[in-house]
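Reopening this ticket.

The earlier resolution said the output was attached, but the attachment link was broken on my side. Pasting everything inline this time so it's all in one place.
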Amino acid sequence: MYNAIFANSVLCDATSFPYNAAAVEAHFPFKDFDATLSSLDAVLIEGGVFAMINPSYEFSDSSLAENYEAGQPCSHY
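Inline output:
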């Protein structure tokens, strides 16, 4: 179990060309994004920190969103 998980640009599809929603969905479907989040959530202690930068999808659209509270947005992007 982990106290914190950082997913910095690892949940981002940067290989689709042209880069648009349809291409991303074809290469990295939302269901895979959501399943990956669930796998990470399963190894995070209750009250732990999950941070991600530059995902292909919005965390707020995931099945886990209601279980988390939003932190501060990254000011470097």
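Reporter confirms the inline version is readable. The longest helix spans residues 30-42. DSSP finds two helices and two strands in the chain.
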